[in-house]
Design brief:
This protein has 243 residues and is of the alpha/beta class. It has helices at residues 9-14, 16-28, 44-48, 52-66, 77-90, 95-105, 111-117, 138-144, 148-154, 178-181, 183-199, 210-222, 233-238; strands at residues 2-5, 32-34, 71-74, 108-110, 130-134, 160-162, 204-207, 229-232. The two termini are 30 Å apart.
Length: 243
């Protein structure tokens, strides 16, 4: 099984440990992982800004890099959602390219969904111990159907106590360019999310999208919380340090 791994821009630039943790999980599950060295962006920032030309160029590049793989996996519901949900509409007037895109979309998964529903993972290498709460990132939940999968994997870890926070499915306020265009609304959403995390009395908040992680961690620290860890689900499952 040849699995193409799409690292994502934020993971590559801001927290490479997430990528290494995801690789560890995929390989532990029996996948032969392929990581194209020239991969860049899925095109989502350009797409959200209305720049269709650059979005299409990036989408073509990604398809060419990964269409030879049995599956495409990303440690992000946002990026995998961009590919599966929005790529087809970009090529609605190009039947030949649309067929290639749709074929790849059918094989595109968010990391935890792939681990649970394709690799059927029942054991993970991580040894995390502590009380955690899980934030359901918007795109992963609504575009990729990621909800039960990360919780099922966390349940395989004897040292993890999962405590559901209030409004776990509510947006953290990041939303890519939303946090820039609507800063006041974004900050209020982030404050609400951080308060729910703190009310849950946990050691860590865990989630599956790095943009949300950066937003929540930044807000927690500005609120004076230097203790609560903010971790990607891959880091917890793989037992990888976040540094």
């Amino acid at each position: 099984m040849r699995v193409g791994f799409f690292v994502t821009c934020l993971v590559d630039l801001m927290r490479p440990s997430v990528g290494f943790a995801a690789l560890k999980l995929l390989e532990a599950g029996g996948a032969d992982v392929y990581v194209p060295s020239g991969q860049t962006c899925c095109g989502q920032p350009a797409y959200n800004s209305g720049d269709r030309a650059d979005t299409i160029a990036l989408a073509r590049k990604l398809v060419e890099e990964f269409e030879g793989c049995d599956y495409l996996v990303a440690p992000s519901g946002s990026c995998s959602g961009m590919i599966r949900t929005h790529y087809p509409e970009l090529f609605a007037d190009d039947p030949a390219m649309l067929a290639r895109v749709q074929a790849l979309c059918a094989r595109t998964h968010e990391l935890t969904d792939f681990l649970v529903n394709v690799l059927h993972v029942t054991r993970v290498p991580g040894q995390f111990r502590g009380r955690i709460t899980y934030h359901d990132s918007c795109a992963g939940l609504r575009e990729m159907g990621v909800k039960a999968q990360p919780r099922a994997l966390l349940a395989t870890m004897p040292g993890v106590e999962l405590a559901e926070m209030a409004e776990c499915e509510m947006c953290c306020g990041f939303g890519g360019t939303f946090s820039i265009k609507f800063g006041d609304i974004s900050a209020r959403l982030a404050d609400n999310k951080c308060q729910h995390v703190q009310n849950a009395g946990v050691d860590a908040v865990v989630l599956g999208d790095l943009g949300c992680m950066l937003n929540i961690e930044g807000r927690l620290r500005r609120r004076g919380d230097a203790k609560t860890q903010v971790l990607h689900i891959a880091e917890v499952l793989a037992g990888e340090d976040k540094s």
